[in-house]
Amino acid sequence: SKNKRIVSGIQPTGNLHLGNYLGAIRNWVVMQNEMKDGDSCVFFLADLHAITMPQAPDELAENIRNMAATLLASGVNPERAVFFAQSDVAAHSEMAWLLNCVARIGWLNRMTQFKEKSGKNREGASVGLYTYPVLQAADVMLYQATHVPVGEDQKQHLELARDIATKFNNDYDDKIFTLPEPIIQKTAARVMSLRNGSSKMSKSDPSDLSRINLTDSNDDIAQKIRKAKTDPDPIPENEEGLADRPEAKNLLGIYSALKGEALGDVLQQFAGQGFGQFKPALADLVVESIAPIRDKLSSFKNDPAEIDRILSQGAEKAAVIAEKTLDKAYRSMGL
Ligand code: ADP
Ligand code: NA
Question: Which residue has its alpha carbon closest to ligand 1 atom 13?
């Protein structure tokens, strides 16, 4: 069968936390490490997407380096995966323009995320925010992605990419673009706030006790878990016993995700214990998982030139692939 090429982007943000790690960052490392011979991974920082919303330039520049450092510290290996910043490869912007001329306004009008992100002030949103799904299509089509990991909120955009690729192939040349398939993430770990089991762990939560930052010290981690909200009941034997206990479910879910064990197995192991007993075990596991990332992250932060070097080498590798597709697309259109 055909080799897989997985293409995935992530927006650069600061203050990364355990939710970002389990919900996004770690997936890249897993995909990269599970590649078979002949498969490839193309991973990029979606910095051109970041500017569709207002951004402070200094902060964006810092977030790009910080995100790159975090991904590298978490195990993204630039020898195994093509890893770069989107804005360093001009083909993304160029291809997006070609595809803007293939995509139909009616298709974009159906994108629900634009409606959500532009909110009440739709007339005041940037044009970039509106056509951002077309840039996303360019991002994956340039590399002839066979597979693209998508969360629930991005399924519609991948469908759009397939529609654009199909129309381009029909209108110009049927051998130009591969139609990307979604990789629907299994039980995409959704980590909740440590203070309240009904809102997600987020950098925008004003309480620092609500989240484990990837930069937290071991003591901070232990203290946050000690203070995490729970209930007085013991750990149940099965998942039904967690039905109305979101805080308990969240802590056990974090344990399960970090340990790589099914929630049911974790429950079996701790059944009957109170959270006073479980929390130290969880704290040890979180420290064991986060400390090596935090320490690598801090050494990258002391060496920004190294990050820039890795990103520019990655961009060179990416450009070789991307420009080949871009050339074909230009020529097929008569340009
Ligand atoms: P935040 O809510 O902290 O602002 P972002 O919206 O910047 O996080 O999300 C960046 C990435 O991390 C996205 O892929 C998102 O799905 C993932 N992510 C963010 N928060 C969580 C969470 N609490 N649990 C799981 N994944 C998360
Ligand atoms: Na750049």
Answer: 24
